[in-house]
Amino acid sequence: MADCRKLDPLVTPYVDGELDARERADVDSHLRVCPPCHSRVTAEQAVRDLLHARKHALELECASAALRAKCAGHKGIVRANKGYDPFSRVRALALAAALVLVVGGAFLYEATDRSSRVMAAELVADHVKCFAANRVLGTTTQSAGLVEQSLASSFGWHVRLPPSPQEIGLELIGARPCLYGEGRMAHLMYRHNGQPVSVFMLPNASRQEALVSVLGHECAIWSEGDRTFVVVARERREDMAHVASFVRASLR
Amino acid sequence: MPPSGLPTVVLFEAEALASIDSLYRTALRLTRDPADAEDLVQDTYLKAFRAADRFEPGTNLRAWLFTILHSTARNRARDRARDAVTIDSDAVERAADGDGAVLSGSQGETPESRLLRETLDPELQAAVDALPAVFRQAVWLRDVEEFSYGEIAEMLDVPVGTVMSRISRGRRLLFEKLTVRNAALSGTT
Question: What's the DSSP call for residue B32?
């Protein structure tokens, strides 16, 4: 390839490694005899490599909690779109019987700064995210004893899980740290008739008892001592009250 | 129902919301204003959730969201441009062509190693933000968000050739900015 103009459209895919072997050989042969083109390719390669090497530093800015809650608040629009969701309302309610029990070890909500509704909205978003993450990462089934030990060693939080969750159809599926709250939350995951619900624990926080409907989920909130518990599920209100009542009575 | 046991709609929502940080960062590069970036991201999710039935399962949801983000940004810019001076992006690109000279590196050290050694993270961020919009978008989407040329072409609504051209010119402009700055700081010319 003798003409620099012919090289022009090939430079970027060359730098990005997107040329086939023949095209790459053509570019290489031209670069060996053309210092200006060689200089251009070298410069482009240097910037590409610099951006890739510093990618982490360019990714420090994150969406605020308020923006997350606002965007999550638009989710109801999808569910209102009957053309998208293949499930009827009745079937969706049956599906919503799922239960993932999530326990927060050191979640940093400040009761004085956030309303219960905003807090519930963020926890609903986290519930959905964590369940999706669990789907990817996989969570092994663990005994209540192992989970209690894990909470004590990882978070310094001594808790007794419900000893007989099967009484209301709960099945413990595991525990893992939550990415939310800078990894200082622990998740205890259960299933209820095969489907998820979430319970969060916020240490050093106290809130008024409430049952909040937000983002298509029901959130039961209560405090005991210096801990606040939040149960999240896509359940009917009365079903949620039943699940929350059981958790409240049996989780210590 | 998907194998996870979750309704499709929940998975769609969760996967869409998982891209919020990268959408916000990209919106910041587009608007260079945190409040405007938040508005843009919120508007993007509103439109995406409204158009969820038009998303084709199995295709790249993240790329689809970025396409909505850029389309929304373009529409906003168009609205604002009615009362402002119109910027001819082709003219910007032609002007950038005139800056094609590339500084040669010093003997014994490659441009790559010099850039890596001499460029601080905030300087790199500032240099990216200082690029003309058309180049900033292309370089960011390719080198930071790592989209394909085809995906970027769809997002920016331009031909693939234009995408490659903008990436190339954007990278060279960045190189010039950073090397000139580094040379000035080190007292060399």
Answer: S
d(CA A81, CA B188): 62
Tell whether B144 lies on the interface with A, counting CB pairs under 8 A. Answer: yes
How far off is chain A from B184, nearest CA to CA, in Å?
18
Pairwise CA distance, residues B4 & A96, whole Å? 13
Query: Does the beta carbon of B99 lie under 8 angstroms from any beta carbon of chain A?
Result: no
Question: In the beta sheet, which residues pair with residue A221?
Answer: A210, A230
Report pLDDT digits (tens) over A90-135: 333 333 333 334 343 333 444 434 567 777 777 777 777 666 666 6
Candidates B136, B183, B147, B169; CA nearest to B65 is: B147
- Tell me if A191 sits within 8 A of A173, measured CB to CB: yes
Contacts of A13 (CB under 8 A, 6+ apart): A19, A23, B149, B164
Token pair in block for residue A75: 């989710």
Q: Indicate the pLDDT class of residue B23, thresholds 50, 70 and 90.
A: very high
Report d(CA A145, CA A160) in Å as an integer: 9
Residue numbers of B between 102 and 141 with CB closer than 8 Å to A: 102-105, 110-112, 114-116, 119, 121, 124-125, 128, 139
Candidates B112, B128, B167; nearest CB to A49: B112
pLDDT at B3 over 60: no
Contact A224, A206 (CB under 8 A): no
Say yes or no to pLDDT of B145 above 60.
yes
Inter-chain residue contact A51 with B144, CB threshold 8 Å: yes
In the chain, the amino acid numbered B89 is S
pLDDT at B37: 95
* Cβ-proximal residues to B17 (8 Å cutoff; 6+ apart), any chain: A68, A71, A72, A75, A125, A128, A129, B45
Flag if B42 and A98 touch (Cβ within 8 Å): no
Closest C-alpha to B17, from A72, A86, A188: A72
Does residue B44 carry a pLDDT above 70?
yes
Q: B76 and chain A: CB distance < 8 Å anywhere?
A: no
A182: left (phi over 0), alpha (psi -120 to 50) or beta: left
Least confident of A175-189, A208-222, B14-28, B129-143: A175-189
In sequence order, what are the beta bridge partners of A189? A174
pTM confidence score: 0.57
Question: Distances in Å between the alpha carbon of A56 and those of B59, B105, B124, B170?
Answer: 26, 26, 12, 20
